[in-house]
Design brief:
Layout lengths: L3 H14 L12 H8 L3 H13 L3 E4 L3 E4 L9 E4 L2 H5 L8 H8 L4 E12 L2 H7 L6 E11 L2 E11 H4 L13 H8 L4 E12 L2 H7 L6 E11 L4 E9 L4 E4 L8
Helix pairs in contact: 1-3
Length: 254
C-alpha cells in the first residue's frame, strides 16, 4: 500500500501541475487540508515536506505554503574524457570546461572566486605528496553556463613549485591550467579521477542555486607530471542537473 502522505503529496502535486495552485499562490492551510481530505496533521506535514524537497513549494512563516515559480530550463554539459586531448594541444585559449561547452554550442566560462596561499590540509597534502601544513596555492572558481554557476572548483598546487608563475597569480589562467603547465615545461602525463555524491551544503546550494537537500556530484582529480609527481589536486562540486561526466573511448586492451 502507498503511504498516506505519498497519496496526499501526489494529489497536491497534480493540482499544482494542472494550475489549480499557480506559482506564487498558497496551498490550503493544514486545517483546510484536514477537512478536505481527512488526513492527520502529521501526514499533511510529511506531504508538504516532500513537495518542498522536490522544489515545488516553499513553506514561509506567517504566509503559508507558497507554490514556487517554475524553474528555468537547465542545460546539461557533457564533459567528455577527450577534453584532455583537446586542451593539451598547443595554442588553445580555452580550458577543459570551456572546451566542452564550446563543442556543445554553449556559453561556458570560468569565473575566479579567489586565489589563496595557505597551509595544506591533511587530505590535500596526501594527494599532492607534500607534508601537512606545507604551503599550497588554492585557486577557487565557478564553472559557469550563461554566467550561472554549474560547478564549484577548488584546485590545489604546491607553492614551492609554482611560486612566481601564472598559477600563483590572482588573474584567471587563460587556456586552463594544463596549458599553463605546458608553458612551464611541465607535461601533464596522467590523472586519477573519482566521482561520488552527497547532499549539498547550504553554501554550495546557495552558489549553485539548488535546494540544500539536493544531491551534488563530487569530482576529484590528481594530475601528475612525466616524473610521477603530483602537480594538481582538483576538487569539484557539480550540480548533477547541469553536468554529466563521460568516460568514452576507454581502451580495453593494453
Amino acid at each position: 500500500m502507498v503511504a498516506r502522505y505519498l497519496q496526499l503529496a501526489a494529489l497536491l502535486r497534480d493540482a499544482i501541475s494542472e494550475g489549480e495552485y499557480p506559482p506564487g499562490t498558497t496551498l490550503p492551510t493544514v486545517a483546510e487540508l484536514i477537512e478536505r481530505y481527512g488526513y492527520s496533521k502529521s501526514t499533511i506535514s510529511r506531504a508538504i515536506e516532500l513537495l518542498a524537497e522536490e522544489g515545488l513549494v516553499d513553506p514561509i512563516k506567517k504566509r503559508g505554503t507558497v507554490v514556487r515559480e517554475a524553474p528555468p530550463v537547465r542545460v546539461v554539459v557533457k564533459v567528455s574524457l577527450s577534453r584532455y586531448q583537446q586542451v593539451l594541444a598547443t595554442g588553445g585559449s580555452l580550458g577543459p570546461w570551456e572546451t566542452a561547452c564550446r563543442d556543445q554550442g554553449l556559453a561556458g566560462g570560468m569565473k575566479t572566486i579567489s586565489v589563496d596561499h595557505m597551509p595544506a590540509a591533511p587530505n590535500v597534502a596526501a594527494r599532492l605528496g607534500v607534508a601537512p601544513g606545507e604551503m599550497v596555492i588554492v585557486r577557487s572558481r565557478y564553472a559557469t553556463i550563461d554566467d550561472e554557476p554549474a560547478q564549484i572548483q577548488h584546485a590545489h598546487y604546491p607553492l614551492a613549485r609554482f611560486a612566481g608563475t601564472p598559477i600563483a597569480a590572482p588573474e584567471k589562467v587563460v587556456g586552463g591550467i594544463y596549458a599553463a603547465l605546458l608553458a612551464l615545461g611541465i607535461t601533464p602525463a596522467e590523472a586519477d579521477e573519482g566521482i561520488t555524491s552527497r547532499v549539498a551544503t547550504e553554501e554550495e546550494a546557495a552558489a549553485l542555486k539548488i535546494r540544500p537537500t539536493w544531491p551534488v556530484l563530487v569530482f576529484q582529480r590528481v594530475t601528475r607530471d612525466s616524473a610521477g609527481d603530483a602537480v594538481e589536486y582538483l576538487h569539484v562540486v557539480a550540480d548533477p542537473a547541469r553536468t554529466e561526466f563521460l568516460y568514452d573511448g576507454l581502451p580495453l586492451t593494453s
